[in-house]
Write a structure and sequence with these properties.
binds flavin-adenine dinucleotide; 2 domains; five-stranded parallel sheet; alpha/beta; 6 helices; FAD/NAD(P)-binding domain
């Protein structure tokens, strides 16, 4: 086994689960597409107990610091498959690396909507990102593309224009869903070029992204970019564990009040589940429960002592 616990997703649920398993001295890694998850998207979070109002990104950075301090490893990538083995689980990433673990805690929240084009999965974490907040700074003075026509894409383009040398905003129509104010701002930015009525067709690269192919009518052209940001919304997508869990009609994963799924050793927590009220504090609490349950599983039911009796 490579790990005692593999956590999928570095949002509030996943990072809290990892804090709990690390404190139990279980060898833990979090595999994630980004760091922070959806909480990153809120510029002002004022309902996380015990903290001053702050940006979601700052709050998630503090979660990450906690995890690292407790010895958690972070692996950047997209999980494409989780398989049950005779003993434990095999977790496979889009770039064909796989890891084995005694338990898996799935905390993949709401999944960024994907384009479904060649190269997209392969280069996720290696040039393809769904979060400007998390990954934008990596593209200082480089050329990037951002895909989408809603507020996330336009706000992302505004942020990227400050960091990158050039930004292409690629959108499949000429009309936008974004607020007029953001659209006007982007139109006035010298280093943002809009590529409209354009369908992304493929992402190219060699180890890392080098370009994106877009189709405008019959014409196809490749934009030379080092980063591609896909900002086209979120959905529930339990596909990576679909054979190991039950889902409801909203594609939320069915768990019991101990974050257990129908597969022993596979836990699930946070927005990905049937638990109501999708909120950061709720995901964090559910993650804590899942982490403690994983510990009970690995120690064959050894009772969990609450921290203040240590
Ligand atoms: C715009 C916005 C504003 C919000 N404002 C607030 C607020 O003010 N207060 C509040 O309490 N809540 C707020 N929320 C809700 C809150 O952000 C979510 O409830 C919370 O982020 C859920 O945490 P999670 O860990 O369950 O999932 P997520 O935050 O969705 O994290 C999921 C993680 O899994 C990763 N992942 C997904 N699929 C894979 C895969 N296949 N392989 C590897 N990694 C994967 C993602 O990259 C991400 O890191 C807001 C949400 C949005 C979108």
């Amino acid at each position: 086994m490579d790990y005692d616990v593999l956590v999928i997703g570095a949002g509030a649920a996943g990072m809290t689960a990892a804090m709990y398993t690390c404190r139990k001295k279980l060898k833990t890694a979090i595999i994630s597409i980004d760091m922070g998850g959806q909480t990153n998207l809120t510029s002002h979070i004022e309902n996380y107990p015990g903290t001053e109002p702050q940006s979601g990104y700052e709050l998630m950075k503090a979660f990450k610091t906690n995890c690292e301090g407790l010895g958690c490893e972070f692996i950047n990538g997209k999980v494409v498959k989780v398989e049950k083995l005779t003993e434990g689980f095999k977790v496979t990433l889009a770039h064909e690396v796989s890891y084995k673990a005694k338990t898996v805690i799935a905390c993949f929240g709401k999944v960024p909507r994907s384009l479904g084009i060649p190269g997209e999965e392969k280069f996720t974490g290696r040039g393809v990102s769904s979060s400007v907040v998390s990954d934008g700074q990596k593209y200082k003075d480089k050329t990037v593309a951002i895909i989408g026509g809603g507020n996330s894409a336009f706000e992302g383009a505004i942020d990227l224009a400050d960091i990158a040398k050039n930004v292409y905003l690629v959108h499949r129509r000429k009309e936008f869903n974004a607020d007029e104010v953001s659209v006007e701002k982007v139109k006035n930015l010298d280093n943002v070029e809009m590529i409209l009525d354009a369908m992304p067709a493929a992402i190219k690269g060699k180890g890392h992204v080098t370009g994106i192919v877009v189709k405008q009518g019959e014409e196809e052209k490749e934009l030379q970019v080092e980063g591609v940001f896909i900002e086209i919304g979120f959905l529930n997508d339990p596909a990576i564990i679909k054979n190991l869990v039950e889902v409801n009609d909203k594609k939320e994963i069915v768990i019991n009040d101990r974050c257990e799924t129908k597969t022993p050793g596979l836990y699930c927590a946070g927005d990905a589940t049937i638990v109501p009220f999708k909120q950061t504090v709720i995901s964090a609490g559910e993650g804590a429960k899942a982490g403690l349950e994983a510990y009970c599983f690995i120690t064959s039911g050894k009772g969990v002592t609450i921290d203040w009796t240590h």
